[in-house]
Design brief:
With 105 residues, this protein is mostly helical. It has helices at 3-28, 32-58, 62-91.
């Protein structure tokens, strides 16, 4: 394997790992705010690593430029969308989960 192929595999594997972390966070975390945080951070990193692997795969072509622009767009829009969702939830009066809600005994 060439060093480029190793980098592509490493970036794709990192993207897969962080996509799984985001999915687990969405399933396991208790409320909208923590789920939004998990999804925005981990999913942005997963998409970034995967798109970087795709850009390396295309090497020097027009598709590389498009992939890098998509990567930039994802890094700007994913956290912004998560912030907008959390802010809308706060304005609707959705309370964050607290430790007191866990104790029912």
């Amino acid at each position: 394997m060439t060093p480029t192929e190793i980098a592509i595999v490493a970036l794709a594997a990192g993207g897969l790992f962080f996509a799984i972390v985001a999915a687990v966070g969405i399933l396991r975390l208790p409320d909208l705010y923590t789920r939004s945080h998990s999804a925005s951070k981990s999913d942005t990193l997963a998409a970034g690593l995967t798109l970087a692997a795709a850009a390396l795969t295309f090497s020097a072509s027009g598709s590389t430029i498009k992939t890098l622009l998509l990567l930039l767009f994802m890094f700007i829009t994913n956290p912004t969308a998560a912030h907008a969702i959390a802010r809308a939830a706060a304005e609707e009066g959705i309370e964050p989960w607290t430790r007191d809600e866990e104790v029912d005994e």
